[in-house]
Amino acid sequence: MTHIGEDISVIASFDRIYKIRPLKFKWSGRLFHIREVTYTWLIKVGQKNIYHFSVTDGASLYEISFDTTSLIWKLENIDT
Amino acid sequence: MSKTINKSKIIICVDMDAYFASIEQQTNPKLRGKPIAVVGTGHRTVITTRSYEARKYGVKTGMNIYEAKRLCPDIIFVIGNNEKYTYTCIELQKIYLQFTPDVEIYSIDEAFLDITTTHHLFGGPEAIGRSIKEKVQNQFGITCSIGIAPNILLAKLASELAKPNGLKWIKPEEIDSLLEDLPVEELWGIGKSLSKKLEILGIKTCGELKRTPVSILRSKFGIIGEHLKSIGAGLYDRPLIIQEKDPKSIGHSMTFPKDLSSREEIEAELLKLSDMVGRRARKHCFVGKKVSLTIRYPDFETFSRQKTLPDYTNHTHEIYKNTIAILNDTKLKKSVRLLGVCLSSLIKDNNQIPLFEDKKKEKMLLQTIDQINDKYGEFKIIWASYLKHLEPPRVISPAWRPSGIRNITIKNTQKK
Fold first, then answer.
1. Are B29 and A1 a contacting pair at CB < 8 A?
2. Do A68 and A48 meet the contact criterion of CB atoms below 8 Å apart?
């Protein structure tokens, strides 16, 4: 895993079944289509809730996070 | 210990299959179907869980990475992600609570559910078991084994027999025939050492254990003799522990990546451990009157010393000061591999306002630090003395629970 820790733009759906489901994200000017959300977990940092998603575009594995307080998405790690 | 099995009782044991390894295989599609082992960071790390593919090569929990690599050259080591495992356990508990309020989270990957009074609402015990399996699979993509029986001993045995990814129901009328030829070490609570001692007495199966006169078992094993005879017959009446009892002690210990030899390093670690103990005691409103220090040398020689305090406390510096006093009375023979600090003789904190100004200020300072850490996360405000030694806890203790005083924030082991 390579740590990135950069803010990213994300298109996500918020619904009852998947709750939050990232669909696409843009990083370094490139658009990544998420083929599978492989795992989701929540980390509580004080009063903040940060959802983490392991996602794959079919080639690499990415860990992205969503801070429900600041509404900021981040690309946390990449595993190529 | 009851002499008969309560046939109306229905207990489910949910046991996750290769929990940490399955989560990692689900997270990373490239790991699926491959032999993997979940490990910690650092050169002292051991295997915490291994996938079923790795088990085929004889890789076991507790092995170091070199032994595992020798047995399975293609094994892939994955550094564990504790935050993922503890979150999943909390979510699993929510699934179990859909079927009964009587849930005991026995460990991070095992739970017991008493469905005696609720199973009829969900189509019976087997339907509940299948529904739990389906929900776990759909929500997390991992599998679990389900054991159903009239008590937790037999439910645990059933889940073991169902592994991996199965469901087994031991009905009351099947117990005697199932246990008759079952090796004693298959029973929960009978380990290798105890089964060897039983073998010396000519006892290899549960049937033989059940028929052994209690006087023989008592003379050989003392107080547990009667318990052994009972479990040989499948009798076990421990109720589920649903509500956590008040703790007898609050403690933290840490094994260091490198042995500590300087006094400064040891003191900094003791301050950190004292702070963790004090913080947890304050969070759950307990004060204690005894402080103990545990030290382990690199050769695993371990000892503890304790000190009784003049008054009850949960103040970080009171705990630290007394830990240092114990250390001062201890002549360290070698460098230190592990340190532990524990506060015991606990009572509930009645939150009495201190009479003296300096104590009042100290209490307010701790309250302010706790409030900041509650809001912004653990270790956001820390004592300067251990700033450069800061490293959060790295392993999930077997005592970890999804809620209550044993719910400890466990940071990730992955280095970022």
1. no
2. yes
